[in-house]
Amino acid sequence: MGDLQRAVARFAERHGLQHGIETYALDLVAEVGELAKEILLATDYGRRPVSFRQELTDEVGDVVYSLLALAEACGVDAEEALRASLSKYERRLADRREAGSP
Questions:
Q1: Does any domain span residue 85?
Q2: Does residue 57 form part of some domain?
Q3: Using the 8-state DSSP alphabet, how is residue 25 labeled?
Q4: What secondary structure letter does DSSP report for 84?
Q5: d(CA 7, CA 29)
Q6: One pLDDT digit (tens) per residue for the chain, 102 residues
Q7: Coil, strand, or helix at residue 36?
Q8: How many helices (H) and strands (E) are present in the chain, helices listed first?
Q9: Contact 34, 59 (CB under 8 A)
């Protein structure tokens, strides 16, 4: 498990923020929604070039926290999962010249 995932786990334990997997999953979806909203606001819903505010960084941090808390609750090493995904994308790019699912 990576340092960031360990830090999230310790933070949650220290502050009594440990929840069930369902709560973490819903929180992650909510945080991704808030990130998307910030991107929409940063472009005035696509009407102007992007101009990010500090809130974007805040929302990205919230998404990362929620994802790492979910990974911890599920017993998934997020760093190992990311490495496996990068390898999968490398294979797809080598085989088909695109990273997306077939």
A1: no
A2: yes
A3: H
A4: H
A5: 21
A6: 689 999 999 999 999 999 999 999 999 999 999 999 999 998 888 898 888 889 999 999 999 999 999 999 999 999 999 999 999 999 999 888 888 887
A7: helix
A8: 4, 0
A9: yes
